Amino acid sequence: MKKKARGSNLPVNEGFKEKDLYRLQHYMAKAGVASRRASEQIILAGRVSVNGLTVTELGTKVGRKDKVCVDGKEIRLETAMRYVLLNKPAGYVCSLSDEKGRPVASDLLKDAYSERLYNVGRLDMFSCGLIIFTNDGNFAAKLSHPSAELEKEYIVDTSLPLPRSLADDFMEGIRVDGVFYRCKEAEELNARRMRIVLVEGKNREIRRVFESREIGIKALTRIRIGCVGIEGLQFGQFRDLTQKEVQALLKLCTSKDY
């Protein structure tokens, strides 16, 4: 599964002509830094410079001839779009870097891809399973937008037997510390295993719900994102998404009136 990335049949990053100017966050997304929304936060944090000057204005426009740096490192527009599916092992954080020195999930891809890839959505450090990496900001924005309602399926293994009413309660909605959590589907597979489908996925949603019932989680694994499943990928393995899969994921999102 861990193969060198190939350049054939990859979509080209089009739409940027030599003389054209584009909003800085759009340029950053096309350069594979982060989604447009995440790029805006990076700009506001003062981490971006254009031609040697720090820029914090979201309306700033740049072109191919400008020198754009993020955290002091120059970025350039990618020429090929990458879409990678990783089966993340537990113990890795979903971020481009970690100030605590913990293992970063994107490092698992560095030997195979020269492009700067970032994760679409997150899994917490102790969770494992599917996560998508890309350098296509538009693709990332569409999959991440709340209105996309892209299904994500999980298997949860617990240390204690599950409360008999938990699956039904989670589907009806559970309020924890003032936050309302509701899954699309929940099915008890056995006394200590549950299958859960989320469409919104608030921060640590499953863990917070289980903790509210004093049920410890031994393993939390994401096995599906939209139409893409985990079949054939062991922990730490990855593969390129096919163009058919990329288009199918986008169709699932755009059908939700993104």
What's the total helix number?
Answer: 6
Q: What is Rg?
A: 20 Å
CATH topology of the largest domain: Alpha-Beta Plaits
Global geometry: elongated
Which H/E pattern describes the elements? EHHEEEEEEEEHEHEEEEHEEEH
The tally of strands reads: 17
Q: Superfamily at the CATH H level of the largest domain?
A: Pseudouridine synthase I, catalytic domain, N-terminal subdomain
Number of domains: 3
Distance between the termini: 33 Å
How much strand content do the residues show?
25-35%
Sheet with the most strands? 9 strands, mixed
Uncertain residue ranges: 1-10, 12-16
CATH architecture of the largest domain, by name, is 2-Layer Sandwich
Helix-strand category: alpha+beta
Please report the first level of CATH classification, the CATH class of the largest domain. Answer: Alpha Beta
Share of residues in helices: 10-25%
Put the structure in a nutshell.
The protein is an alpha+beta fold and 258 residues long.
